[in-house]
């Protein structure tokens, strides 16, 4: 053990992720307002008592909270230099690693790995090192450390050097790139990423497909995965929470408002996403327009309820994508809408209660990502659906491995095929829909977040 990093605390379970469970906003009067986040990791971690969550301060509010010593027990926020963080998060994690794993590049013109990339990469290393050092300080002897995602791919290797006594796991919430695509990265960078993750005792993924892609990269580039074990843990929907939350009064209110906007007797095609390039919202709208064109019998009888919540707006490509979604929705409404019918209801302001209301009343859920680690929306809709919902699902979503049999499966690039799938979904008999929704909900809840987390912890401790 390196004495400089001798443990100062006794935490036995540590989690590290870029985004933590809490965000602080700095008010004009100087007060700090704390907002708790949700998601699988937050629910999963609630299964464990003695734990520490190490995360990055993401905005001015978070940084101010760290400086004032404001915080939650069990959370340590790292006040990493804002420019270093921006390079690592926006420059490398979101503009390079996310693009590689989701196959998002327009390869005739990008990526270009130039001197600017190398400069940002140095920040990515600095940012990963800050996490490794903090974890080395905080972990009790022999503790289990679960490192999350592509932001922190170098942490396991760095932490292993500082604290060889620890049990280290790495979990990827994204897909993993096929080896030929992974090789777009400069050779030394690709190797560094793989070796970083292989510093863990265990590297885990959401599906077998992503785990196999990682193994292929390791085998072809490094000759194997060394001593690191590979695991698969398919995070499921949190059924208890969703069923309870979706019956609360604010959700009922949103349902009444949505019903009114949709109009009496009309069917709904619902999608709920972050406005994220990989979610394929633009092709989803093209498919809907194709449906109205090729099946005019649906005009006036269906509404596409599309919730596309802002994401990564620091990046121009995300801002452009958000604008493209809005332009296309407006175009469709202009071309087909009537006085009494708005074909697309697009909402861009994040509202969890309204999302649950849309889940409950959806006749069809459209989940058509280009590529997705899992996609929890595909799992959540069947769980809270009031009257059964037909699921149109991309075969490139991780959820396809578990839900493919009872979904209507699409190739996300095939707009004509997706339009046909929407028609099929809208035409499905109530009886068939009910049967499929029941089976989808069972498959979707097979591994609740708490169990998902405990399984990883147990596997890490056993090996
Ligand atoms: O959905 C996959 C994922 O990697 C999550 O694990 C993670 O929280 C998210 O993407 C990152 O999004 P953001 O950039 O908004 O933090």
Automatic annotation (TrEMBL):
GO terms for molecular function: alpha,alpha-trehalose-phosphate synthase (UDP-forming) activity; trehalose-phosphatase activity. Its EC number is 2.4.1.15. It is an enzyme of class 2 (transferase). Pfam families: Glyco_transf_20. GO terms for biological process: trehalose biosynthetic process. Belongs to the glycosyltransferase 20 family. This is Trehalose-6-phosphate synthase. It comes from Streptomyces microflavus (Streptomyces lipmanii). The lineage of its organism: Bacteria, Bacillati, Actinomycetota, Actinomycetes, Kitasatosporales.
């Amino acid at each position: 053990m390196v004495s400089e990093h001798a443990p100062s605390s006794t935490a036995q379970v540590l989690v590290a992720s870029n985004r933590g469970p809490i965000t602080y906003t700095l008010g004009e009067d100087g007060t700090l307002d704390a907002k708790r986040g949700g998601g699988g990791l937050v629910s999963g971690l609630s299964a464990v008592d003695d734990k520490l969550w190490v995360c990055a301060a993401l905005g001015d509010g978070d940084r101010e909270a760290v400086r004032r010593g404001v915080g939650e027990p069990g959370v340590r926020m790292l006040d990493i230099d804002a420019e270093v963080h921006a390079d690592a998060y926006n420059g490398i994690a979101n503009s390079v690693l996310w693009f590689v794993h989701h196959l998002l590049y327009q390869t005739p013109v990008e990526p270009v790995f130039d001197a600017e990339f190398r400069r940002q990469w140095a920040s990515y290393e600095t940012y990963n090192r800050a996490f490794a050092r903090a974890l080395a300080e905080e972990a009790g002897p022999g503790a289990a450390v679960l490192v999350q995602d592509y932001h922190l791919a170098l942490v396991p290797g760095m932490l292993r050097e500082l604290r060889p006594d620890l049990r280290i796991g790495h979990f990827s919430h994204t897909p993993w790139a096929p080896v030929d695509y992974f090789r777009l990265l400069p050779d030394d960078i690709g190797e560094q990423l793989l070796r970083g993750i292989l510093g863990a005792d265990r590297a885990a993924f959401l599906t077998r497909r992503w785990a196999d892609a990682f193994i292929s990269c390791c085998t072809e580039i490094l000759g194997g995965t060394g001593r690191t074990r590979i695991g698969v843990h398919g995070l499921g929907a949190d059924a208890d929470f969703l069923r309870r939350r979706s019956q609360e009064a604010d959700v009922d209110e949103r349902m009444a408002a949505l019903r009114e906007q949709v109009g009496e007797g009309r069917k709904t095609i619902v999608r709920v996403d972050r406005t994220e390039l990989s979610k394929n919202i633009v092709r989803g709208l093209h498919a809907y327009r194709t449906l109205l064109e090729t099946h005019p019998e649906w005009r006036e009888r269906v509404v596409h309820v599309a919730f596309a919540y802002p994401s990564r707006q620091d990046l121009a490509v995300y801002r452009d994508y958000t604008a493209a979604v809005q332009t296309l929705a407006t175009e469709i409404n202009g071309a087909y809408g009537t006085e009494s019918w708005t074909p697309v209801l697009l909402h861009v302001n994040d509202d969890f209660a309204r999302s649950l209301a849309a889940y409950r009343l959806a006749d069809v859920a459209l989940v058509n990502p280009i590529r997705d680690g899992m996609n929890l929306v595909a799992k959540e809709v069947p769980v809270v659906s009031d009257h059964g919902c037909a699921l149109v699902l991309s075969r490139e979503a991780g959820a396809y491995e578990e839900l493919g049999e009872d979904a209507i499966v699409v190739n996300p690039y095939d707009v004509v095929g997706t339009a046909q799938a929407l028609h099929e979904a809208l035409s499905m008999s109530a009886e068939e829909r009910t049967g499929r929704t029941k089976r989808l909900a069972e498959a979707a809840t097979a591994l609740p977040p708490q169990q998902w987390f405990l399984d990883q912890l147990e596997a890490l401790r056993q090996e």
